[in-house]
Amino acid sequence: MRDTALLLVDLQNDFVHPDGAYGRVGCVAAEVAALPARLAPLATRMRAAGGWVVATQFTLVPARDGEPLISPHLLAMRPFLRKGDFLPGAWGHRVLDELGAVDLAVEKIAYNAFYMTRLEWVLRRCGIARLIVGGIVTNGGIASTVRDAHVRDMDVTVLQDGCAAPTPEMHDTAIAALRPVAKIATIAETLLALQ
After folding, report:
1. Residues whose CB falls within 8 Å of the CB of residue 137, separated by 6 or more in sequence, listed in order
2. pLDDT tens-digit series, residues 119-172
3. Total count of domains within the chain
4. Which residues are 57's β-sheet partners?
5. Exposed, middle or buried by CB within 10 Å (0-12, 13-18, 19+), for 5?
6. CA gyration radius for the chain?
7. What are phi and psi of 10, to 5 degrees?
8. Is 91 in a helix, a strand, or coil?
C-alpha cells in the first residue's frame, strides 16, 4: 500500500460545505454533498493500511489587490465567485474536515490536477504509482486528471460512487468514457480489497 494513494479531487469547503462559495448560492448538488461521508471510511482505511491520502485544492490566486485571478470561462459559468473564495490557506480552500488530515495537498488552477502543479513530482518522490480517485467533478477534474495520470503510466482506479458531476447523466457518460484508461470500482469493492 505504500505505493498507493487515495486522490481526493477538490473536496473543499468552498465547493461542498453549505457555507462555502458554492453553498451560499445553492450550487451544491446532492450527489456532491454526499461524497465526503461516503469517502471518509475509505480515507481512514487507506491510512490504516499504510497508503497515502492526497488532496488537490482548486485555487483562485489573489492578484495584487486581492481580487482573484479567474479564467474567463469559469467566471462566465460561476459569476458569483468573489474575493476570498478558494483563497490559499483560507477556510474555504481547505479540504473538508470529515475527510480527516491529508498526507499531501497540491494546489491547482485548472481542471487537470497535473497541469502546472507539483503533483507528479510529489507522487514520484513519495513512491506513489497507483491512484484511487474520487471527488469532483467526474466530467471535469476527475476525467482530465485520470487521463493525464494514464499518460504518465500510473495505475488508476476511479471510484464510480466516489465522484459526482452536475447531473447523473454527465457522471455516467464520464465514467463510461474513462473505462479504456482506468479501472472502475465502487467504494465497497475498494474497502474490501484493502482488508
Report:
1. 10, 32, 163, 164, 165, 166, 170
2. 999 999 999 999 999 999 999 999 999 999 999 999 999 999 999 999 999 999
3. 1
4. 107
5. buried
6. 16
7. 60, 30
8. helix
DSSP one-letter code for 98: G
CB atoms within 10 A of CB 127: 10
Give the CATH number of the domain where residue 189 resides.
3.40.50.850
User: Residue 138: CB partners within 8 Å, gap ≥ 6?
Assistant: 163, 164, 165, 170, 171, 174, 175
Helix pair 187-194, 35-48: axis angle to 10 deg: 10
The domain of 183 spans 4-194
Cell of 166: 452536475
> Is 141 in contact with 10 (CB distance < 8 Å)?
yes
134 within 8 A of 163, measured Cβ to Cβ: yes
Phi-psi map region of 127: left, alpha, beta (phi>0 left; psi -120 to 50 alpha): left
pLDDT (tens digit per residue) in 62-102: 999 999 999 999 999 999 999 999 999 999 999 999 999 99
